[in-house]
Amino acid sequence: MALKRTALNAVHRAAGARMVEFGGWDMPVEYTGIIDEHLAVRTRAGLFDVSHMGEIEIRGAAALPLVQLVTSNDASRLSVGQAQYSALMYPEGSAVDDCVVHRIADDHFFLCVNAANADKDFTWIERHNTMGADLDNVSADYAQLALQGPRAASILAKVTQADLAHLKYYWFCRATCCGVEGLLARTGYTGEDGFEFYFSPSEAEGVWNGLLDAGKPDGLIPAGLGARNTLRLEAAYPLYGHELDEETTLLEAGLGWIAKLDKGEFIGRAALAGQKQHGVRKKLVGVEMNDRSIARDGYPVWMDGEAVGRVTSGSYAPFVRRNIGLAYVPPEQGQAGREIEIEIRGRKSPARIVPLPFYRRDRK
Amino acid sequence: MYPPEFLYTKEHEWIRVDESIGTIGITDHAQKELGDIVFVELPKPGDHVTAKEAMGTVESVKAVSEIYSPVTGDVVAVNSKLQDAPEKLNSDPHGDAWLVRVRLEDHTETESLMTAEQYQAYLNEEAGH
Questions:
Q1: Which chain A residue has the Cα nearest residue B82?
Q2: Where are the domains of chain A?
Q3: Where are any strands of DSSP class E within chain A?
């Protein structure tokens, strides 16, 4: 099957981006270099084309009951204009996908889901829609840009009239940016302040160039999926297919905070309640290498002469300048400070368990 | 761009042979493909390496890549500067950031390697796919 392309594909190629396949999409992995782009987002700002992400709309009188049934967080607590991190759930307590649920109106929800999972998610929600909510997979109707970094708000203020000072973290509004109307959310996947703008793909080039021009004096540069991954790893945000999959429950992934067991019945609730009582099988921990070697997805974790777990993500972390990773280990062996070994191409390298996240921004 | 005095492999290593000593590195194409290089693992002086077999690893932020030796022989020198400054492989892959020097056991092994012109044609062909 041919790779899908975002509306900005030619723009990325003309800018000299290196392109890779990701989740069935032909996406820019880097422009000037992952380290350069990562540091720009931490210290200035970066602009990401994340139009590959999927969008699903749920409407009607049955919208809230359906969202409450298929997701783990409590959407009834959302005000109109507010968003929450959540997960679409399997009965086993694991995630079909992780997502951001936006409440556009009392009876209208907008879900942002992972690109590779969008069709699977939609089918899953549809299958559980016995209450008759209106469902739409609108992934093809939206471009999505993420403007991230400490200067994101001041850059965005140049191209929108939206009241950014009063748009709080995980809130959104209808807004016009660079002359184009869309949904503007103060969300992101980098650990920095920032915004995500959802709008018509036919306007993608104008908004992309408009933001880059507005941000040029502030050092805004385009950033690719490579930096997006190292940024989310420093912030210890999970990535579906790595920290999250069908075999891993929310509690094991450290996402108990989005599993609202007291909100009423939802898919996976019983399994999570059981685990809460009887304990989890594994625990997600942060690891840091004690030498210059780099842990990667799938590498075995050793403790006291036994292979006890696996790395799920690992990289050199450009801002904290350490070799870090996320790994699953037995829950009783996951204390921060423990010395461990990571098996790298047949050789064991010394590492230790460290507290998460690796990076947390200073909030004023 | 690709020095005419080097020979090249399909795995994007280069070798410059002076008498019986071969200096080995990775090509500019290789460093560009990898992106920011952050770790290099090399054999030690005295180690024996074999043509077409892995002799070390280069890691960028996003990927791990094995380095294959273009020739067979004993390692006589290792570029120790790369341990603390692997990013030199991005800035000067054909010069200061050579990897190892090997005493060649069999000069005929170099006959199957590509010239600079052949390597450039090989890259063009790969890019065309």
A1: A292
A2: 9-51+142-234, 54-140, 282-354
A3: 18-22, 25-30, 46-49, 54-59, 83-89, 95-105, 108-113, 134-137, 143-148, 172-177, 180-185, 194-199, 221-222, 283-289, 300-303, 306-317, 322-329, 339-344, 347-354
pLDDT higher than 70, residue A267: yes
Answer whether B91 touches A (CB < 8 Å): no
**Residues in chain B, overall count:** 129
Residue B116 tokens read as 């600079």
Q: What is the pLDDT of residues A113-167, one digit of tens each?
A: 999 999 999 999 999 999 999 999 999 999 999 999 999 999 999 999 999 999 9
In a domain, B113, yes or no: yes
Residue A287 tokens read as 């690891």
CATH no., domain A54-140:
3.30.70.1400
Its sign, for the CA torsion A279, A285, A291, A294, is: positive
Q: Which residues partner with A100 through β-bridges?
A: A85, A112
Distance from CA of B18 to the nearest CA of A (A): 33
Provide the CA A54 distance to its chain's centre, in angstroms. Answer: 12
Which token pair is A316? Answer: 């050199």
Tokens found for residue A82: 């507010």
CA angle A209, A214, A220 (to 5 degrees): 85
Question: Is the CB of B36 less than 8 angstroms away from the CB of A230?
Answer: no
Which of A294, A313, A319, A320 is the best mutation test for B, with the most CBs of B within 10 A?
A: A294
* Chain A residues within an 8 Å CB radius of B129: none
- 3-class secondary-structure state, position A66: helix
Cα separation, B99 vs B78, whole angstroms: 6
User: Which strands, in side-by-side order, build the sheet including A54-59?
Assistant: A83-89, A95-105, A108-113, A54-59, A134-137
Question: What is the CATH number for B69?
Answer: 2.40.50.100
ipTM entry: 0.85
* Tally of structural domains, chain B: 1
Asked whether the beta carbons of residue A29 and residue B64 sit closer than 8 angstroms, the reply is no
Closest CA to A60 of A102, A106, A99: A106
CA A186/CA A83 separation, integer angstroms: 9
A34 in reach of chain B (CB within 8 A): yes
Domain that holds residue B66: 7-124
Cβ B31 vs Cβ B94: under 8 Å: no
Kindly tell me if the per-residue pLDDT of B129 is higher than 80: no
- Contact between chains at B41 and A226 (C-beta distance less than 8 A): no
Query: What is the per-residue pLDDT across A44-98, written as a single tens digit (0 to 9) for each?
Result: 999 999 999 999 999 999 999 999 999 999 999 999 999 999 999 999 999 999 9
Q: pTM of the prediction? A: 0.94
A322 touches chain B (CB under 8 A): no
